[in-house]
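Entry 12.
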Amino acid sequence: MSGMTENSQTVRLAVNGTLMRGLELEGNLLEVGARFLCEARTENCYRLWSIQDVHPAMIRVSPGTEPSTQVDVEVWEVPAAGLASVLLKEPEGLTVGKVTLEDGQTVLGVVGEPALVQGMREITAYGGWRSYLKSLRDRP
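Predicted 3D structure (tokens):
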């Protein structure tokens, strides 16, 4: 699985936050005709932050850096013509980069700029945005 599919008119995009199924920005993918492919995990070289509990930011770190984790993601097939529309609607400080999945395949993915996470709560230990949101709901 590379960033481009056999039909070069679509790209595979790994999302790790509010673009995921059932969350606030999923409609941005659906309105450009994107199609959910699968749930996956990244390789163990990412860290994750909560940006004021509104959305996450995932940043790649050097392999072996602690803490790091595999982050739960969803992989979507997005029409190339619609990719810019989706990304322009993302919160400021989120961008697109290459993301390596646990099976070694590289796809495009939504990642955070390092400046975005300064002073924010690190949530790497949760392994994903959904797990973090669940922990907020489960608090007494």
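Annotation: The radius of gyration is 14 Å. Residues 129-138 form the longest helix (10 residues).
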